[in-house]
Design a protein that fits this description.
With 211 residues, the protein is of the alpha/beta class. The chain has 7 helices and 10 strands. 37% of the residues are buried.
Length: 211
């Protein structure tokens, strides 16, 4: 659910609608296995039916707060890597948040569906395109990692459509849709064996039973 937010309320990104923040282990993608501090913002303009963070969608439930409230907890954690996720974080100006995180000595990664241009200074951008709301062109230009969720054969074609738009050297990952992983995984394995430019990504945090 997306509601209009007065940009004055966000104070240029110094206030954001945070849902939650926590220190855990990154469970998927290039940084799988790395300790990371997750910063999750509210609001999504995609709304995937299989989303495991639907509680973030209703933006109205999470009034913007000063980013310092989260940064204080990040500092206490001892984390060296921060991951900004959602919801859809590119709905907001993220420059002040990423600048402060870098000043604190953290690397800063972004997880996005790419529905808006990326704002902020990120060390690694994971683009996970969705059928319901396609990424903007600028998102492909910023992507360091293309992570496509695969649930059926049509998603393999969708993956290649998006792969054709990323820059050379972008890491290409296929990840099984969790709810149909038993049927999706064989599709992915078969495909990657024929197309080795792709790699398999697994949601290892779900097997570890951590957030």
């Amino acid at each position: 659910m997306i509601v209009d937010i007065d940009l004055k309320v966000l104070d240029g990104g110094r206030r954001l609608p945070f849902v939650e923040d926590f220190y855990t282990i990154q469970g998927e993608g290039r940084y799988t296995g790395h300790a990371a501090y997750f910063i999750r913002v509210a609001g999504c303009d995609v709304g995937c039916p299989w989303c495991d963070a639907k509680y973030t969608w209703n933006q109205a439930q999470f009034p913007p707060v000063d980013i310092e409230t989260v940064l204080e907890r990040v500092g206490r954690s001892g984390a060296r890597l921060a991951v900004v996720t959602g919801g859809e974080p590119t709905l907001y100006p993220l420059g002040p948040l990423t600048a402060r995180l870098h000043k604190m000595g953290l690397k800063v990664n972004l997880e996005t569906a790419g529905t808006h241009p990326v704002d902020g200074d990120f060390d690694w951008v994971c683009l996970s395109p969705k059928h319901k709301n396609h990424p903007v062109a600028a998102a492909f230009e910023r992507a360091d990692e293309l992570k496509v969720v695969v649930g059926c054969e049509e998603d393999l074609r969708w993956a290649e459509e998006n792969a054709a738009r990323v820059r050379p050297g972008c890491l290409k990952l296929m990840q099984p849709e969790w709810n149909v992983r038993e049927t999706a995984m064989p599709l992915i394995v078969k495909y990657v064996k024929v197309h080795p430019e792709w790699q398999v990504s697994i949601q290892t945090h779900k097997y570890m039973q951590i957030p």
